[in-house]
Design goal:
The chain contains six helices and no strands. The protein is an all-alpha fold and 128 residues long. The radius of gyration is 17 Å and the shape is elongated.
Length: 128
Amino acid sequence: PHKLEPVTQVAASSPEAEKVRVAQRALKELLASEDAFQFEVLVQGSASRLPVAVSFVTFQKLEKASGDGMMEAAIEYAETYRDAKDLAKLAVLAKGSDDVAKSYYKRALPEIRAASKLLDDVVGLLPP
C-alpha cells in the first residue's frame, strides 16, 4: 500500500513554499554583496538586483499548512519590502544628485535587511 504524505509535507515542497525560499536566498545574496548593490544603484542607476517580492496569493496558499503568525509575518515582510524597493527606486531616480541618491540608498538598506529578516521569520513558520 502507498503511504500518503502528510499535508504539511506537500505544502513544504510546494511551488509556493519554493517561491518564498528562493526570495529568501536572493535577499541574502543581495545583502552579502552590499557593495555591488550600492554600485549598481548609485553609479549604474539600476536596482535590477532586487528580487521580485513574494505575492500575497503565494502566502495565502501556504497559510493553512503553516504555523501561527505566518500571515502576520508575511504582511510585515510585504510592507517592509515594498518600502525598501520604493526607496531603492528613488535612489536610482535621484542619480544626478549624489546626496539625495545616497540618502535614499541609506534609507533603503535597513529596510532590505528588515525585509530579509521578516522573510526568514516566514520561512521558519513554513512546514519542515
